[in-house]
Amino acid sequence: MRKIWLIICLVFSLSFVFTTQTYAHLAGQPPFFLINGTYTGYYPVYVTSLKDFVLPQDTAPENYLPNQSLNFEIDSAMLPFPQSIIDKTTFSWDFGDGTKAEGLTAKHSYTKIGSFLLTITANYGSYRDSNTRPILQAILLNIVPNKNYKLPKAIIKVNGETIEDPNSSIPLNEKKITLDASSSVEGSAKITSYFWDIGDGKSTHQRIFEHSYTDYNKTYIFPLLRVVDANGFINDTFVQLEKAPSAPKSSIPFLPFIVVVGFNILLIGGIILFLKKH
Questions:
Q1: What is the pTM of this model?
Q2: All structural domains of the chain
């Protein structure tokens, strides 16, 4: 009975902690993934409203070159789970270029340039379908042709105003707003694609468009912009829109995100206490 209860708790907690469809690498959670001995960093975009759009949780500490040997490592001591659970968990790697591996460590070299999303899923034995296993980690790596290569930069304008700080809340005072990606900066190659997660479950490839959120009942909306250059390099940014400016404002950005973080801290703590007592 104890084992069944433990599995239920683990699966339930993983479904919150490692859900990249909603939140990225949790703020305050220690880094636990290393590339060539250096921990990865937080990805600057936190949320997506699209179920089939996986955001990176972390970003690589630097850009790498084709055929460069890369050593990947999950620092199990920094994972928020007891070692007894980690020992029974299968970590499956997808390097984003068609290559796969398993384990807490791996070595890999990318032969082509571009942006690659390395994803790692954690399987404790309760997920038969690999497509439904919780994503433990998703890291964006840029494999550049040379160290002087400049990546593109996504920039959003809302009603003609350039967004300098994505975390600042922009009130929605009109029924329709204009979202504009035309100020995005090209790097060493031309931007060939603009992709928007509009924030209400809808998407578009238009560079400039009008949109209405009148039928969307969330107070905070997070439109996300991804630009892609001719060599496949991506850059993401977002803006925080406040649909109801008359409602009391929270002084803490991403209040729902913080609520989920607190919930997971309590849940993980409960699992650890349960294991110590039994």
A1: 0.76
A2: 2-148+254-277 (2.60.40.10), 157-242 (2.60.40.10)
